[in-house]
Design a protein that fits this description.
The complex is a heterotrimer of chains A (467), B (155) and C (173). Chain A is mainly alpha-helical and 467 residues long. Chain A is built from 19 helices and 4 strands. In chain A, a hairpin with a 2-residue loop joins strand 3 and strand 4. By secondary structure, chain B is an all-alpha fold. Chain B has a domain of 67 residues. The chains are: A mainly alpha (467), B mainly alpha (155), C mainly alpha (173). Chains in contact: A-B, A-C, B-C.
Chain lengths: 467, 155, 173
């Protein structure tokens, strides 16, 4: 809660910092703001508080999720390089401010206690992301992506809101615990539950699956991820996904757990469908950015698997996976931004796999960071991604989701194929990439994320014991 | 409450019916002798040209966008205004209610005022003027040539 | 009497919504949407939500629809140059999937609402609801007390929308 207030104020402060004719201070200021919010957030550790008449709840779970979100934001801001030196066409103050505001929405999505707060949080996050997606105003693809994202997102929000209204009608409560008590009591009493409840649950699940881009509601993802400026794609695929899954998990495990026997079938099959569609399509991609979009869909599939299993360990699995995935994704996009800007084709940044050819020769750090992040995304042992997948698979195994498990293992193998494409391109192929100059903070971020990925791969208990 | 809205409905119905009645009476009374001049669009005496729905300027859109946002703000202000000065509530809470409601509303309006201030300073509220095209035609005849001719015929 | 008015507004709402669906001229669709909004506002009022009805008229009819029509007027109209009619026409695409999804959704909702048992639900959760007093004061008191956090956060949301919209729509580059 404190971090929500602080970040709202910081966002406004950032907007007005933009009026100073000094673009250099924006990035350090934003980093300081996020670190301050992180401190405020960690100060809530081991306290359980309900804020403002049961609107928000801060407890260890919400502190953990908020930390993952803030760390991901911190990394994204650190690789943003003040949004370039293009004085006229970039607006760093607005970008940073809107990013901070969107984090406010994301934090509300992980701390909500009342469905109203979920809706407003989702709306803040989405509106910010529409703007950031379309922020490259001269790029037609960015405009198209923003429009697509806006139409799909508004549609999904409408569906979610309809679901909330139906659930409220059926249970008479907006509070997730109030709904949970009602659903469980009715299950026990074996009384007639009005079908409004089931349709409401269905619509809420559909609305949230739209936001986390699980199949069959994923079709907007590749275009939007490809069209958006890369730095915001990195932000979108980490923060939005983590917040969306936190919200989905909290709703399903607290409010609708009494009807587990009903919604589990829906998620069971959607999870398998997401994994198959995303991984098979990713194999055929030529563009690295588009491949990452499908990879993000496939990771939504893995996360959906642990939500489906609904074990006691699910929350720590989601947290660990989100953290590992966010770190690896930010690293991959960071390397991609440098490489693609360095190598242009037809005046546009080259985002295909060919751009990585021969990267290792003159840029060993970049190639190594890319390789580690790809290995982590593929789930190769000794990286954080392996343990993320391991925890999720063991959750699913405990629940006995056999179909999902088989599909997930097969699709992990498929994933190894396309995640190795950029590694092979950078180490095995011949290319002519000169040494790319990297700013110190960028280099530091890359080193930290790479070390973190390996460290979490060697000693997952470091954070797993906290989560 | 429904009866109050019933009056509004009656007003709307009366308005619509009245329109049609007037037009119908006019149709009965007036002579009908149309010609091409009478039927053409009145455009201040000029001959009408082109189509009525021309392409609008983007400046209207930005203003309308900001207007919608402040209209939503107004919708939130309205229920507040009906209870802000509620005597009963103020007495029950020993005057606290008024201050509390005022503070909440000031925070709300203040947030939006900051947004407005941002848009103002950034110049989003300014009326976008069309760029005046300046002619960059340069004559091959130097300017002092004219002056020389002027001087020559001065006397 | 009330039933007749209710049915009249239902017909107005659904009829104009179908008009939006079937007309090919986007401007006509926008004007038909005006009637839909008005009908929905009237339905809100008849359901006892007077404040919601007023909000609907204020925001949707007064704001959103104006934006919509501005949007249409801003769109490039090729016909204008040739002096012909410059209507913006739409095409029907993906008719099969559209009808399938819309029909499925309608069927689902129809089943839900016929099986809902609204009267039992109302007695169970909401008690007696009076249809004869205004909801504005209750809304105001609730906004100031129980729902004060959403209220303030909506202020932040509106500000983001203001900043984002003016940033995207402005042309200062």
């Amino acid at each position: 809660m404190n971090s929500i207030i602080a970040l709202s104020l910081f966002g406004i402060a950032n907007l007005f910092l933009g009026f100073l004719n000094n673009r250099k201070i924006l990035m350090p200021a934003t980093l300081a703001f996020i670190l301050f919010a992180l401190g405020l957030n960690l100060a809530d550790w081991n306290t359980e508080v309900l804020w403002f008449n049961n609107m928000l709840r801060t407890n260890n779970l919400s502190v953990n999720f908020t930390t993952v979100i803030l760390v991901a934001t911190l990394l994204v801001v650190a690789i943003s390089r003040g949004f370039g030196d293009d004085e006229e066409h970039s607006h760093p103050a607005e970008y940073y401010a809107i990013m901070l505001f969107s984090v406010v929405g994301a934090i509300m999505m992980v701390t909500f206690e009342n469905l109203l707060m979920l809706f407003i949080g989702l709306e803040i996050l989405s509106v910010s992301m529409y703007v950031l997606t379309g922020s490259d105003k001269r790029n037609l693809r960015s405009n198209e992506a923003a429009l697509k994202y806006f139409l799909m997102g508004a549609f999904a929000t409408g569906i979610l809101l309809f679901g909330v209204a139906l659930v409220y009608g059926a249970t008479g409560s907006f509070s997730i615990y109030g709904i949970g008590n009602f659903v469980t009591e009715n299950r026990m009493g074996q009384s007639e539950i009005t079908p409004m409840l089931y349709v409401g649950i269905l619509l809420i699940i559909i609305g949230l699956l739209f936001k986390v881009s699980a199949a069959p509601f994923h079709f907007w993802t590749p275009d939007v991820y490809e069209g958006a400026p890369t730095i915001f794609t990195a932000f979108m695929s980490t923060v939005v996904k983590t917040a969306g899954f936190a919200a989905l998990y909290r709703l399903l495990s607290v409010s609708f757990v009494g009807e587990y026997g009903k919604w589990v079938y829906l998620l069971y099959f959607l999870c398998a469908a997401t994994l198959i569609i995303a991984n098979i399509t990713a194999v055929y991609q030529q563009s690295f950015k588009r491949m990452m979009a499908f990879s993000s869909i496939s990771h939504a599939g893995y996360l959906l698997m642990t939500v489906t299993s609904n074990q006691a360990t699910t929350q720590s699995s989601i947290l660990f996976y989100s953290l590992a995935y966010s770190i690896a994704t930010v690293t991959a996009f960071a390397v991609m931004i440098l490489v693609s800007e360095n190598k242009t084709s037809n005046g546009k940044p080259d985002e295909s796999f060919d751009a990585f050819k021969g990267l290792a020769k003159n840029n060993p750090l970049l190639a190594f960071a890319l390789a580690v992040s790809m290995l982590s995304l593929a789930g190769i042992p000794l990286t954080a991604g392996f343990w993320g997948k391991f925890f999720i698979f063991s959750d699913a195994f405990k629940r006995g989701l056999i179909l999902d498990l088989i599909v997930a293992v097969l699709m992990s193998a498929v994933g190894v194929y396309y995640y190795f494409k950029p590694i092979i391109a950078s180490y095995m192929k011949e290319g002519n990439i000169q040494e790319i100059t990297i700013k110190p903070i960028y280099k530091l971020t890359l080193i930290i994320t790479t070390i973190l990925t390996i460290l979490l791969g060697l000693m997952p208990d470091l954070v797993k014991s906290i989560f | 409450m429904l009866t109050d809205f019933g009056y509004i409905l009656l007003f709307i119905i009366t308005g619509i019916v009245f329109c049609f009645v007037i037009l119908f009476v006019g149709k009965l009374l007036r002579p009908s002798r149309p010609n091409e001049e009478k039927l053409s669009t009145y455009e201040s005496g000029e001959a009408p040209e082109g189509n009525a729905n021309v392409r609008f300027n983007i400046r209207f859109y930005v203003i309308a966008l900001i207007f919608v946002l402040f209209e939503v703000e107004l919708v939130f202000l309205f229920p507040w205004a009906t209870v802000f000065g509620n005597k009963h509530l103020i007495e029950v809470t020993n005057g606290l209610w008024g201050w509390f409601a005022l503070a909440e509303m000031l925070i709300f309006v203040g947030t939006l005022a900051l947004g407005l201030a941002y848009a103002w300073v950034k110049g989003h509220l300014e009326w976008v003027r069309p760029k005046i095209q300046t002619q960059d035609f340069t004559s091959k005849v130097p300017a002092n040539l004219y002056e020389n001719i002027n001087k020559k015929y001065e006397k | 009497m009330l039933n007749i008015i209710l049915i009249a507004f239902c017909i107005l709402t659904v009829g104009s919504a179908l008009w939006v669906l079937w007309t090919k001229n986007v401007l006509h669709a926008a004007f038909a949407l005006l009637l839909t909004f008005l009908g929905v506002a009237a339905l809100y009022v008849m359901a006892g939500a007077d404040f919601l009805g007023i909000t609907q008229i204020l925001v949707y009819v007064g704001g959103i629809l104006v934006l919509l029509i501005f949007g249409i007027m801003l769109t490039n109209q090729a016909g204008n140059k040739e002096g012909g009619k410059n209507m913006i026409l739409t095409e029907n695409l993906n008719r099969f999937w559209g009808i399938l999804i819309a029909g499925g959704f309608f069927g689902l909702l129809f089943y839900t609402f016929t099986q809902a048992g609204f009267q039992e639900v109302e007695q169970q959760h909401f008690g007696e609801i009076s249809n004869h007093s205004s909801t504005i004061q209750i809304t105001g008191i609730q906004l100031m007390t129980d729902y004060v956090l959403p209220f303030e956060i909506v202020g932040v949301l509106l500000m983001i929308a203001l900043v984002g919209a003016s940033f995207l729509a402005s042309k200062n580059e």
